[in-house]
What we know:
It is a single chain. This protein is of the alpha+beta class. It has 2 domains: 35-193 and 202-351 and 395-493, no CATH class; 357-391, no CATH class. It has 11 helices and 23 strands. It has helices at 2-21, 27-34, 97-111, 149-167, 263-276, 313-330, 357-367, 381-394, 422-429, 453-456, 474-493, and strands at residues 38-45, 54-55, 66-67, 72-79, 84-90, 118-122, 128-129, 170-180, 186-187, 189-197, 203-208, 217-220, 227-235, 240-247, 259-260, 286-291, 297-298, 341-351, 398-408, 411-415, 419-420, 436-440, 449-450.
Amino acid sequence: MEKLNKHINWVILYTLSFFILWPLLPVAQQSNSSKTFKAGAALSNITPFLGGGIVGNFGEPPAAKYVHDELHARSLVLDDGSNKLAFVICDNIGIARHVCDAAKQQIQARTQIPVQNILIAGTHTHSATSAEGEGLRRRGWNKDRPLDEYQQFLAHRIADAVEMAIHNLQPAEIGWSSVHIPEHVFNRRWYLKKPAINPFGVMEQVKMNPGVGNPDLDKPAGPTDPELSFISIQSTNGEPIALLANYSLHYIGGVPMHDISADYFAVFANKMKSILQQKGQTVPFVGIMSNGTSGDINNIDVKATGSKFKPYEKMELVANDIADKVFKAQQQIRYQPWVKLQAQQADLTLQIRKPDQQLSAWAKRVLALPEGSKPLNHSLEKTYAERVTQLANEWPNEIAVPIQAFRIGDLQIGAIPFETFAETGLHLKQNPAASKTFTISFANGSFGYLPPPEQHALGGYETWLGTNRVEKEASRKIVALLEKQFKAMSQQAK
Length: 494
């Protein structure tokens, strides 16, 4: 009897001590097993109306006459039980900030996801109409102007995509990885053996897209980033929900001038769906390709004579190849049942580059030339005289640009509203506080090219005033703010 009483007392003591000590256990030990991670994905159609101008090249935008493939807003929502993050990647060359802001306000009102937790980005397809304004408005200062018809439609459909993804939320697992695919990325800026003249009449060391087989080619002016990073999400019973990829490669093109197309971004997304989606699957699967730091990267090997491709043929070849490589890498992922989600966003004030007196005088001289006159120095000088004049007359002296950072477990994602160079993305990846880091460009706005200061010194299309609008130190300031945001989230995660 005495032994029985001792045993009962021991059981009571053990039980009491468990309930007393349970609150003192590490939070992660308690919460990770009790919280449920959820994810949902969806897509909504954002194909513009026929008749609008297809933008992305010089000259008068050709009218959209045919839809080769529909354009979409592809959304992914993650939920850790306390926080939600929303990604919306849109088949568009670039979306004005006030359009992104309008969409985010709708999303917040409908879903209660905070604005700073919503990332909206364009893919940079060159076969879509403008979401930055029509005609000359596209390059003007439009912050306080009402949205045009397509911008209103786009903002609403972006919000629809997020609401549908939330409708599809279910318990899920998440993992991430990357694969190196160097054979499709080439730096398009080249040192030349002889300097080249720019539209302003200045000789430069570097030229963008110097031409295949150009005998004056010397060497590339910068690196490439061959790493394709991706996030893979599946339901708890193993059904694929979404795959969000990030590759530092510009659009590929090869699209007839009057066609609307989402370019290789959509070909990749559709290929991933055909590979991953299972027969009889009850969960909608969405493949997504976001644009990394590709401001100086394209798919043209100027050192090779190359083959000629039929329309759409090259983008199919590239997209199918990278999809196959991603699928192989995905098989090695170890999925996590729960991760902490964090987000930060802040506006960064940047100075606008304005033309000095000499450049303003040059612009007036060029614009005063009779119609059909021979250019003074360059075939694009009238185009840049117009851009420089618009920049001087319409743009403020400084602007605020949104810089955003997400943290998913120990994965970090930066969001920059510019065409960002590969070397900036490579620098951000060197972050010891994360298992992986990548950057989404054209995110939460579209403000032009973002060359690092060293590239400004070399010249070339991406540095020309009117192509680039912000101060030459802008990339350094953006990187500093992103690294500050990454550090803050890393410390909060501990």
